[in-house]
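seq:
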Amino acid sequence: MNNMAERGREPLIAVIDEGTLTIRFVVFSSKTRQELVSHKLDVVQKCPQEGWAEEDPQEILSAIQQCIARVVEQMPALGLRVTDIVAVGVTNQRETTLVWDKETGEPLFNAILWSDIRTAVTVDQILAKLPDNNKNYFVPICGLPVSPYFSAIKLRWLIDNIPSVRKAISEQRCLFGTIDTWIVWNLTRTDLGALHVTDVTNASRTMLMNLDTLNWDPVICKHFNIPMEILPTIRSSSEIYGKIASGPLKGVPISGILGNQHSALVGQQCLHIGQAKNTYRSGCFLLYNMGNKKVYSTHGLLTTVGYQLGPNSPVTYALEGSVAVAGTAVRFLRDNLNLMKDVSEAEGLAKSVKTTGDVYFVPAFSGLYAPYWRKDARGIICGLTQYTTKAHIIRAALEAICFQTRDILEAMHKDCGVPLTKLQADGILTNNKLLMQLQADICGIPVVLSSAKDVTSLGVALVAGHAKGIELWDLTKEEEDADHIGDTFLPAASALDRNLRYKKWKMAVERSLGWASTKKSVAMTDERYRLLASIPPSWFLLGSFTMLTISHALAAR
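struct:
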C-alpha cells in the first residue's frame, strides 16, 4: 500500500451492500471516504402465503456478480483501477436465514427474510417448554426475546418443515448462515472448500450467540435442538477472513462484515457511549452505543453487539429498538389503498394539510416490534371523520413512523437514565424533509442527517479499511468528524402539543392490540396435557393440597 501511495495511486475499498430489496456494489476512496462508483440492482421478494417473505439465494448471488461486473466496467473511464481495490467489506440484511448443501452449494430452501412471520407455531412450541411461557427466558444469555424475528426460530421451522433440510443434516451436508455467511462462502469457494464464517453482529441476531463468550451457546442450541456443527465460525467485524477466489476481484481480501444496522452505526460515527442513530427504510432501526458494558432492557428493547473492531479488541454493545413498518406503510397506502401513484408524492400530499385532523395510523401489519413485542397487534386507522382526506391519512402514516421512534427513545431513556440530546438519522426516507421535521417535533430533540450518500455502505468500508493487514485508518483513535454532518431539523412544536399527540398515539396503539388473538396453539398446551396424562390415577385421591403442588410443578415446567 505504501508503494501504491508513492506511485500516486490511491487504495480503494469496495463494499457489497446486500439490502432487503436492493443489492449494491460500491467503491470508496480511502482519502476522502466518498463513493467513487457504484451500481445497484433490485431483487424479487416472494410472498407465497400471507405473512411469508422469501428471496432466492441464487438471485442474490447473481445480482452481486452483475453489480461487481458493471462497476468494474465503469472504473477505467473514471481513472480507477480494479487492482487498486485492497479490501472488500460485506454488509447485509440481518436475521434473514438460509441453509444450503455444502457439497453442491445449492440452497435447500429460499432465504426466509427477517420480516417473515410464518413461525408463530414454532414460537409457541418453544414457549411451551419455558417456565411461565416466558418469552424473555433467554435474554440474559443472548439479549433477545423469543420472537419470529430472529434466525434461530426460522432455522427451527426449516428443520421441522423441510424434509431436504433434515436429510442434509443427517448426512452432515447442511450449512446454516445469515446472508453475510452465504456471500462469503460463495466468494471464497474453491475445490478445496470455502469459508463458513459470520461476524459477531450478525451472530448476535440469531438468538444462538452468548453475548459474554461471543460463541454459540450450547444451552440455547440444545433447547432449540439445533446441531452446532451446521453453524458458521464467529469472527470479529474487522479482520482479514480470506480472499476472493475468482472473478475480477480474485485475490482481494474480505476484511469487514457488519449487519446493515450495525454498519450504519459505524457509518454515522456513533463510536462513543451514548450516541445513537436511526435508519429510516422499510422498517426503522434505532441503535444506541452502550460501550463495552451490556445493558439488559426492562422496557422492551434488545441487547445486541454493536461491532468488534478486531479479534483482540473489546466488543461494543448496543441497545436496539426495531420498528417493523416505516416506509412499508407509505407503500401500503400507494399499492393497497391507491392513495397516490408514487411514494415520492407522500411529502407533498402530507404538506397540503397542517395536521392529521386527529387521525392516527398504527401500521401493525404483522404485529408490533419494540418496545411492545405483540404479535397479536394489527394495523388500524382511527379518528376518521367526514372531513378526513387521503392527505390526512398519508400525514398520519408519516407521523406513525415518528411516534414509533419516540416509543423506542422513551424506552431507551428508562433503561439508560439519560435522554438523547440529538438523533442521527439516515436511510432513504430521510429525503422526506417533512418526515424529519415531524420527527424532531414529536421527539423534542434535533434530528441530524449524515452528509454521506449511504452510511450503511460507508460503515463496513470503514471497518474493512481498519482491519489489521489493511490499516488505512484507525477507528479506535479517531475523533468525530464534523464534515459528515448534513441538514439538522430543530423541534418547532411545543412540549404540550407533542405530549398530547403522543398520548393519543398510545391510545391508538392500545386499540390495535388483540386483533389477531387466537387460541393458543396445540403446541402451547400439549406439554401440560402430556404431563397430566402421565400422572397415575391414584394421585388424584391424595387431596387438593397435593394436586395444587402438582399444578405448580407443571406450571414451572
